[in-house]
Specification:
alpha+beta; 7-stranded antiparallel sheet; 6-stranded mixed sheet; 26 strands; disordered C terminus
């Protein structure tokens, strides 16, 4: 076989076995570099679909509206690349206009740097938003792969080229004031991610995971730095919707002073709010924040702002020179900046801290110690001790029938000890959530009712075992039909 024919055969073999082939759910990360769907056939030459954008120039942080349209198609794959080096990795990050038909993918270790379909449902038009990164090249071109049917597809359909202005305006300072964030171009844009080099020295920092790098796509970062009579605050994390932190007098939500950075119309808005119990935050009509700057790129939402230590004219704003528990949460925001409940437990500091006091570099926990202990004890009780106790009673009775421990058969003593341990661990675990919450939780769903049922059954089982007579007792003989009949 000639070399070109051999190469073609190898290519076909790889495509036949490649896991990306025929992925109707759009999770085609394996095709990030080539953008070729391995469907066992060659791509079409003359594209039927077009890519359009709403502008020809951009600056770092700008949002560009990208449209893919044409005859009915099933799948698609969109990226933005350096126009001078189209074989380079995908760059920037996308935001979705319709989560029902499109989804974000991570290519070349850059989060949300590609968009694909969610199913093979028929579609004619796709709209997404591309966010220019801080290190974008001068010229960027959009590329798309479109699948009409399984064996009919086009690869790297060239789209328009957008470029940065020839004369770039000076990079705005970190603390630059933005008086009109809703304008067509961001007035104050962070040119690069935050860094943690000053944490514990001049900044009070909270990081999750501990000691993570704020430039990482998995790092939640919050810092406070006192500057005279005000505090400069930086907040960063992997979020497409919003990031928020709150100052609280206890470790559960309610009556808290909250600050949110919300993605709205592909920009970020910094606002203050008040948390009342576990209801949605009450947003303030008057914003007490100054020097707002933001960045939305590479899958990270970042914002910074300044707040006076004392705000007597703003109701609900805590003084920043006192000690509080600190919450850090993230979640989704729908179009118009409407925020939704966070999908994971907020990060909560393990103690109270004064953010204007001694600079520290701390972490936190998304699950308080009492709740962790509750889960661990329940796991030990119902996965370990009760299971071993049942196994001993079922299978070791004939083995240990003639072995005794403290006057009783050994199997029975071991079984009883394990079952009593189960009841004891369950009782301790049952009390811990009430200690943590200070009473009954109205927002915990069915879990407390399930826990009460398990606790009641465990105690009932122990009571039944305690009142059960010996198998040699007269009552047992009567029940078993062993009573002696008299004539």
């Amino acid at each position: 076989m000639e070399l070109p024919g051999l190469a073609f055969a190898v290519w076909m073999l790889i495509c036949f076995y490649a896991p990306v082939g025929g992925y109707p759910n759009g999770k085609v990360r394996e095709a990030c570099t080539s953008m070729v769907p391995c469907h066992g056939s060659s791509p079409q030459l003359s594209p039927e679909h077009t890519i359009t954008v709403n502008g020809t120039e951009f600056k770092p942080g700008d949002s560009i509206e990208v449209h893919l349209s044409g005859p009915v198609f099933e799948g698609f794959f969109i990226q933005a690349r350096d126009a001078e080096h189209l074989e380079s990795p995908a760059l920037g990050s996308f935001m979705l206009a319709d989560r029902g038909v499109s989804q974000l993918l991570t290519c070349a270790h850059t989060k949300n740097s590609a968009v694909s379909h969610t199913s093979k449902a028929k579609k004619k038009h796709i709209k997404v938003y591309w966010i220019a990164p801080g290190n974008a090249p001068k010229r960027v071109q959009f590329l798309a792969t479109v699948v009409k049917k399984y064996k009919i597809f086009w690869v790297k359909i060239p789209g328009p080229i957008v470029s940065q202005p020839n004369a770039l305006s000076p990079t705005p300072p970190l603390h630059a004031t933005s008086e009109a964030v809703s304008t067509s171009h961001p007035v104050s844009y962070l040119s690069k991610p935050f860094n943690a080099s000053s944490c514990g020295r001049t900044k009070f920092c909270i990081r999750n995971p501990s000691n993570c790098d704020p430039e990482s796509a998995s790092c939640f970062f919050l810092s406070f730095q006192q500057e005279g009579s005000s505090v400069f605050i930086e907040m960063s994390g992997p979020s497409e919707g919003y990031l928020a932190f709150a100052l609280s007098h206890d470790q559960w939500m309610g009556d808290d002073d909250a600050y949110l950075c919300v993605g709205e119309d592909h920009r970020v808005r910094a606002i203050t709010a008040y948390l009342k119990e576990r209801s949605p935050p009450v947003l303030d009509s008057e914003n007490a924040l100054e020097d707002v700057s933001w960045r939305l790129a590479d899958g990270l939402l970042q914002c910074s702002f300044r707040r006076s230590i004392h705000l007597p004219a703003h109701k609900g704003r805590f003084n920043l020179d006192a000690s509080y528990y600190i919450f850090l949460a993230d979640g989704e925001a729908s179009e118009g900046g409407v925020i939704h409940k966070h999908q994971q437990q907020p990060l909560i500091t393990n103690g109270i801290y004064n953010i204007t006091g001694l600079p520290q570099d701390i972490g936190g926990s998304r699950s308080p110690r009492l709740i962790k202990a509750h889960g661990a004890l329940m796991f030990i009780a119902w996965i370990t001790t009760v299971s071993i106790g049942v196994i001993v009673a079922r299978f070791f009775k004939p083995v240990w029938s003639y072995s005794f421990l403290f006057g009783k058969e050994m199997w029975f003593q071991v079984h009883r000890m394990l079952m009593l341990t189960t009841v004891m661990l369950t009782s301790i675990s049952f009390v811990l959530p009430f200690i943590y919450r200070g009473g009954w939780s109205q927002q915990a769903g069915f879990h407390p009712y399930l826990g009460c049922t398990v606790m009641a059954l465990a105690i009932f089982q122990a009571l039944m075992a305690g009142f059960r007579p010996s198998r040699h007792a007269p009552s047992c003989d009567y029940v078993l039909g062993n009573e002696s009949s008299s004539t």
